[in-house]
Amino acid sequence: MKYPIFGILSLVLACQLEAPAQAVKSGKPTSSKAATHKKTEQPDTPPAATVGVVVPSWLPPTHSVKPAATILYDLLDTKLDVRFDWNKQWLLGTAVLTVRPHFYPQNQLLLDAKGFEVKSVKLLNGNKEKNLNYTYDKKKLTINLDRAYSRTEPCQVRIQYVAKPNELEAGGSAAITQDKGLYFVNPLGTDKTKPRQIWTQGETEGSSCWFPTIDKPNQRMTQEISLTVEGTLKTLSNGLLVGSKKNSDGTRTDTWKQSLPHAPYLAMLAVGNFAVVSDTWRGKSVEYYVDPQYSSTAKAVFGNTPEMLDFFSKKLGVDFPWEKYAQVAVHDFVSGAMENTTAVTFEQSLVQFTARELPDVGYDAESTVAHELFHHWFGDYVTSESWANLPLNESFADYSELLWAEHKYGADAAALVQQEKMGRYLEEAQSKREPLIRYQYAQNEDMFDRHSYDKGGRVLHMLRKYVGDEAFFTALNRYLTQNKFSASEIAKLRIAFEETTGEDLMWFFDQWFMKRGHPELKVTHSFANGQVSLRVQQLQDSTFTPIYRLPVGVTVWANNQPTEHRIVITRADQTFRLPSSQRPALVKFDSDAQLLAEIEEERSQEELLYQFSHARNYLQKYEAIDRLRTKGADLAVSSMLRAALNDNFWAVRQTAVEALRRYKGPEGESVRKELQRVAASDKKSQVRATALTTLSAFTNENYSSLYLTALNDSSYKVVGAAIQALAKTPTADSQEKITALQETKSQEVLSAISAYFSLNGSSTEQYQWFLRRLPDVSEADLYRSYLPNFATFMLRIPPIEREKGIQKLESLARNAPNSIVRLGAYRGLSILATGMPTIKTVMQDIRSKEKDEQVKAYYALMQ
């Protein structure tokens, strides 16, 4: 699974920072064998602290241990026959489950079944059937079998039921916003902006909201699902379509069968008016299900899937094992994307784009496609036995994004992925530090965080760099082959690497997977008597975080020649002596940028300039630019920045553009001309947009003609940046030109227009525009910009005219299903609250009735 947003506070912080999302602080590129086995259960208590020790704010409370589920039965096969009541939003189903006692004899079968109306439960024995007694509490279905069954005796039960997901108690999390398993989108067809659809989301335990099962990740089943739908609709499920029958009532029954076993949370169905774009890989069907209007651009988004299938199969030495591969875009998905076996689900806004939007998409959509595909090895083929071991799924899927970028686009693109993900983890680590593998957590979905994803991927990168590529991928092949179609835990991964390399790797797995935190390093160096003295200090709080063993590379540049050194840091304060024939021009610690660490590395301006000119990767160039951006007035530094504007890699050019913001050095006129050139003609839309934003910071200069020209750019991102620039320096005709764009379908442009109107508008038409376009704005953009901009706009109109807008903000702040939208509306109310005591009273009442802990934490920050 991949998520666009990890938690409310992460988004809040991201919106409050001025730096771009990819920017990471300079220098922060961003043990016994039993340690990888389960711990004994402990009560919920805060960690004991030594007297006088300050417990850091990022240390979470200790929760009870969540062990892997005890296996009483093996779930062998599930057959479902389902149809739908669109009006009531019900699923009418018959489930036939084949189970077998795992080891001990059993006379009762306990199933997860949430919010059902159970019609009957019968035992099947050949052509005979027998009613069984059962009890049901709306969560668990307890079936009394006719006798005790041994582990050699499978038994089969048939359950007729009605699933009523909308009658379940509302739940969800920051990662997966709802947990009712089965979702009807626009079921009555009253919303003309959305298609009618049905889809499911099983992770973590949502499958039992639409069929009875043993809803645990350490179960595996084959399955067959028959879907009866209106004849005009298409269906999708796991496995192959093995039958399609037209019925006399105008409906159609499609039967999908998966013959290879997978975990119940990976079962799925989707129903809708999809266009199906076909592809193939080694004779297997590869299909993309999209809204019909996006059929012409589907291959531009998904079209690298066959190449990914080939690349990952060869890299892992395990061919993609499943019967087919389909990807479907659905509306209102409760997360980013989900790796359902052979049938991945995506939130449509992540993968459906017009031809004009495609240039702005960048690597994000493609990385999500790679991420979910890689899960078909790590997550589907081999599955984490418990949510405590979730990084065995998500760390690998996260790392696949770097592997694909490296393969398809080169080392610089992979380094950019590394940087962005490092930054995301370090951002989360400001307020939360957990072990990667953790058996103590409050809820299953607490595991879906930047630790399991971004930190885990970076740990795998270090492991790859330590053992080498051949050993890394050989070990992964061993792990997949030995554990195929089974549940796994972290010890099995460690053993696969130890058996491959012959080395005891407990030290690595213990410090990176089983302990919290990361190294915080201070690195200094000096030169004397033909030696470089390199001092490395580990400054992290060793009361709660280990002193790390860190194999790392150091490059010493002398006489324009690099000399590579491998050192192993093992102590809190350590000095290494490295030979050098003369005083080095540069000593670069962690020259491959592999360490997951915060690094404060001492270097002079001359060394950083040398680093840029001799850099062998994007991150070294980025770091030099970032560290020297405050010294742009220096002629040597400004020359470096101007050179960077012509770099082959777009992210270097973008970083240089950002560094020249408000430049006041000796080359002012030349720099601004260069920025205008970049804004008008750089081949990358992200760089053109950034250049417009940078130029708008030169408040004493007038670039309105450039901004107005950019309103016609082929990129929505550039158009949005031009509107934002014009919002600060409007011209006589800018409002007319921007008003002509106000019916845009682009989120980027829509948010930018809201910013323009918030600073320059006051008309009734603009007021109505804000209200009318509200449903068209993404949830994240409602928080980030649209609702605060609407509130700022209302400050420009008479108080008597604000009532409808205030009511809308209050309604959203109280009732919006998504917490991000509630926060955005609350931000809007806070903008309007000055001088309006009634709004302050409303806000106090909203705070008192909010139930989401993360939202309440945000409110506390605003007090």
Automatic annotation (TrEMBL):
GO terms for molecular function: alanyl aminopeptidase activity; metalloaminopeptidase activity; peptide binding; zinc ion binding. Its cofactor is Zn(2+). GO terms for biological process: peptide catabolic process; proteolysis. Its EC number is 3.4.11.2. It catalyses: Release of an N-terminal amino acid, Xaa-|-Yaa- from a peptide, amide or arylamide. Xaa is preferably Ala, but may be most amino acids including Pro (slow action). When a terminal hydrophobic residue is followed by a prolyl residue, the two may be released as an intact Xaa-Pro dipeptide. Keywords: Aminopeptidase, Hydrolase, Metal-binding, Metalloprotease, Protease, Zinc. Residues 304-512 form the Peptidase M1 membrane alanine aminopeptidase domain. It comes from the Bacteria. Residues 79-266 form the Aminopeptidase N-like N-terminal domain. InterPro entries: Aminopeptidase_N-like_N (IPR045357), Aminopeptidase_N-like_N_sf (IPR042097), ARM-like (IPR011989), ARM-type_fold (IPR016024), Peptidase_M1 (IPR001930), Peptidase_M1_aminopeptidases (IPR050344), Peptidase_M1_dom (IPR014782), Peptidase_M4/M1_CTD_sf (IPR027268). This is Aminopeptidase N.
